[in-house]
Amino acid sequence: MLSRVANCLYWMNRYLERADNTARLVDVNLQLLLDQRALDERALAGHWIPIVQSAGDEKLFATLHARATGKTVTEFLVFQPENTNSILAAITQARENARMVRDQITSEVWEELNRLYLFLRSPAARQLLDSSPMEFFQVIKSSSLYLQGLTNATVLRNEGWLFQQTGRYLERADKTSRILDVRHASLPASGVPVSVTQTGSLEWAAVLRSCSAWDAYKYIHGADVQPALVAELLLLSPDFPRSVRFCVQWVNTLLRGISGVATDRFSNEAEKLAGRLLAELQFSTASDIFDGGLHAYVDELQAKLNRIDAALFHAYIFQPFLASGVEQLHQQEEQQQQQAASAVPGR
Amino acid sequence: MFLPDGTLRPHYRKFVSRFGTIPRAELDTKRGAIDALFLRQGITFNVYGDSQGTERIFPFDLLPRIIPATEWEKLEAGLIQRITALNLFLHDIYHEQRILKDGVIPPYYVLSAKHFRREFVNFRVPGDIYIHVCGSDLIRGADGGYMVLEDNARCPSGVSYMLENRRAMRRTFPGFFEGTGVRTVANYPAELYEVLQHIAPAGVADPTVVLLTPGPHNSAYFEHTYLARQMGIEIVEGRDLVVRDQRVFTRTTKGQQPVHVIYRRIDDDFLDPTVFRADSALGVPGLIHAYRAGHVSLANSIGTGLADDKVMYYFVPRIIKYYLDQEPLIPNVPTFLASEEKDRAYILENLDQLVVKSANEAGGYGMLMGPHSTKAECEAFRAKIIADPRNFIAQPMVPLSRHPTFIEETNQCEGRHVDLRPYILYGEKTTVIPGGLTRVALRRGSLVVNSSQGGGSKDTWVLFADE
Question: Are B354 and B422 in a shared domain?
């Protein structure tokens, strides 16, 4: 498979997963506010700023919006053209990647992705967000699930599929850890948190819901929301399909699928790092995580995921992508005459 | 569609008898469904200079152009004659140059042509084929006779619209095709793939064929991915290819893999920065070396642009006569060469009556339409022609034929100007795909069929019979 194609498939799925997670995160937190009494500006900012932080775009947000409210944060994370991680930007990038490998993805997948993109760019999308945010996010979430289903049902299980799934699970691991980290400010710097306020409990439930983990949590632990149990489920569960461990398990398997190496061996840096991270997650408990503080742990985890991504690029994709001269490249691409139309037929 | 007295031409009867029974509202629904389908499938072209990255669909008209069997046979013979002669001509020019030595074409015109590649004189191209894929634009004059407007011998595009238009029509009017006897166009990708395999370097039994695209920002990118998918070959950009020991490889996740045939949709100038334009970011350094070493084949060959120089166009009837000893079956549009003294005098005297074209521009650039231009524009062209006569030709205004077309603004069918681009493949055998892209100028009175200037397209039906 062409390296460039592998790269496009990988990123197409990363962006799709990113948009999906952002949609859930914003949706859940908008709903959460409905359960709280009127908040003053500071409390409101306290609610929303961590959401922006979890996407890592706090600085950019501050330059664009004076206050963090439901409206500004939603705008920032959904449509903001300057924000390269907004839902619109992520879907646009996913589609752009898909467009570059149209010959490699099924028409079912392409048409659904294209439909979602066209919807987001239409005035109807904004109207729906204004009139009924829940329905708006439902559209995004449903489409994302539909795309995952289509991928499952129509895509050949070849190398391209392995790259697609690797992108999907790596991004999901990263996003789950970021969502978990949203409410870290309410936790002690180190040690397992013991008690939690009523608001706190609602907030941690929101974290679960943002990861579609609420039902799974209730099934295992009942309705009493404890931060330590939430972290354990989202980081260490071998069974919950959005937990970091579950995702890393998949990344590890998928990487071995690409190279054909047995799971207990490695042939490149990406495989080594993924295997090591998996072992660490397999042999950790919640108290190991809270010893050094949740936030520090998640930070380190994200760095490890990034290293896997970089090693993957180095192993399979690496080629001199033009960092500079992109403008010139695009200009020349456009310039190529395709003898499309003699413009004026004859005379 | 209609005879001069207003009666329906016989080969339209079957279509009209069915089409006429469809209620108006249903037609509107079907039209909307096709547009939505094209948009959803991403059958679009990129609008340049639009920062929003706007993509548009090429407007599609439900009324097909229908061509009866006998009429098509004549066209087919004429197109085969033309591509055969052009390939012989290119071979001669890049080898013995007999046609120049015999004084049939003044050498000056060939040697001064912008796309003449003197580096490839005496280079033997695979299979001696220069033009593998050709799209010649045809128009019909006042008497209904077909004429060739120009030859596109480099990277003719639009074939994906021909295929998709047919698919849309079949989907929308499945009942129409039964019993009407419309010849299929669907084997184009397979035929093209056969041509590409035919030109593989000697000794390669199972060649790897790729399509080289400029990239997703090109207006024809949809077509590139479409053709690659239909042929089951990989679509590559310049940066996906690497040359080692005069052989071409793709960069893959499993290392470098050899490539034998490249269907390139990039101009000669951009193919290899070490040989042609040094600033090309699209090309592959070393590609030309590999080509010259015979390790990789290109379609179309390098240097075919000579055949679509508009000055060469003037000589095509002589080329056909010289190599095939035949009269052209499809005539040219009458043409005047600005470098010939007598013609130049005529052109300069009648600027306001003529269409003046630059020899090497496409897409309607560098062009003067005398009757529709201001005095100042005519004067500007006069100066240009006098300064560089080699670069200009002139033709009389040909009133294009018209075809009924649904017009949204007036909500009814009106006559609109059309042209036709059939596609010709030249490999082991020569194939003219029975159909083509009929482009239509949607604006009233307009002769411009260009997609960026209000042009649309129609499905083109070639019948098995005459009605």
Answer: no
Considering only the beta carbons, identify the residue of A3, A111, A163 that sits closest to B41.
A111
Instruction: Note whether B391 and B455 are same-domain residues.
Output: no
Q: What is the pLDDT of residue A340?
A: 54
In a domain, A343, yes or no: no
Q: Is residue B413 part of a domain?
A: yes
The reply to whether A15 and A140 lie within a common domain is yes
Residue of A nearest to B134 (CA): A339
B340 & B458 share domain: no
Best CA proximity match to B131, nearest among B66, B85, B99, B95: B85
Shortest distance between the Cα of B240 and any Cα of chain A, in A, equals 7
Which of B253, B335, B402 to mutate against chain A (most A CBs within 10 Å)?
B253
Residue of A nearest to B233 (CA): A103
Residues of A in contact with B367 (CB under 8 A): 343-344
User: Which residues pair with residue B396 across a beta bridge?
Assistant: B354
Q: How would you classify the pairing of strands B255-258 and B247-252?
A: antiparallel
Domain extent, residue B128, equals 10-201+296-327+399-462
Q: Where does a domain end: B346, B367, B396?
A: B396
* pLDDT, tens digit (0-9, with 9 covering 90-100), for A132-151: 999 999 999 999 999 999 99
Return the percentage of chain B with pLDDT > 90, whole number: 57
pLDDT tens profile A293-323: 999 999 999 999 999 999 999 998 876 554 4
Is the predicted pLDDT of residue B221 greater than 80, yes or no?
A: yes
Q: Is B224 domain-assigned?
A: no
Q: How many residues does chain A have?
A: 347
Out of A137, A154, A171, pick the residue that ends a domain. Answer: A154
Name the closest residue on chain A to residue B41, using Cα atoms.
A111
Amino acid code (one letter) for A231: A
Shortest distance, CA A136 to any CA of chain B (angstroms):
20
Q: Do A147 and A161 sit in the same domain of this protein? A: no
**More confident call, A157 vs B408:** A157
Cβ pairs A/B, distance under 8 A: 186
Range of the domain at A102: 1-154
Q: Are residues A298 and A225 in the same domain?
A: yes
Do A299 and A175 lie in one domain? The reply is: yes
Query: Residue B281 and residue A329: Cβ atoms within 8 Å?
Result: yes
Run of H or E including B417: strand B412-421
- Domain of residue B360, CATH code: 3.30.1490.270
**Sign of the four-CA dihedral A279, A285, A291, A297:** positive
What's residue B365's pLDDT?
66
Q: How far apart are CA B57 and CA A172, in angstroms?
A: 35
Is B351 inside any structural domain? yes
Per-residue model confidence (pLDDT) at position B451: 66
Q: For B32-55, what is the mean pLDDT?
A: 75
Residues A196-205: what's their mean pLDDT?
A: 85
Nearest CA distance, B19 vs chain A (angstrom): 29
Predicted pLDDT of residue B408: 81
- Averaged pLDDT, A50-78: 90
Judge whether A138 lies within some domain.
yes
Same domain, B149 and B183: yes
Residue A339 with chain B: CB contacts under 8 Å:
135, 152, 154-157, 308, 362
Å between B112 CA and nearest CA of chain A: 21
Contacts of B251 in chain A (CB under 8 A): 2-4, 319
Are residues A163 and A302 located together in one domain of the fold?
Answer: yes
Q: Give all strands (DSSP E) within chain A, no chain letters.
A: none
Work out the angle between the directed axes of helices A41-54 and A3-34 (0-180°, nearest 10).
Answer: 160
More confident residue, B44 or B452: B44
Q: What is the ipTM of this complex?
A: 0.77
Q: Which two tokens stand for residue B213?
A: 């695209």
Please choose, from the candidates A63, A67, A69, A32, the residue with its C-alpha nearest in 3D space to the C-alpha of residue A48.
A69
Please check whether residues A26 and A68 belong to one and the same domain: yes
Mark whether A166 and A150 lie in a shared domain: no
B405 inside domain: yes
- Closest to B226 in 3D by CA, of B163, B169, B170, B183: B163
CA distance A341 to chain B (A): 5
Closest-CA residue in chain B for A105? B229
Local structure of B117: helix, strand or coil: coil
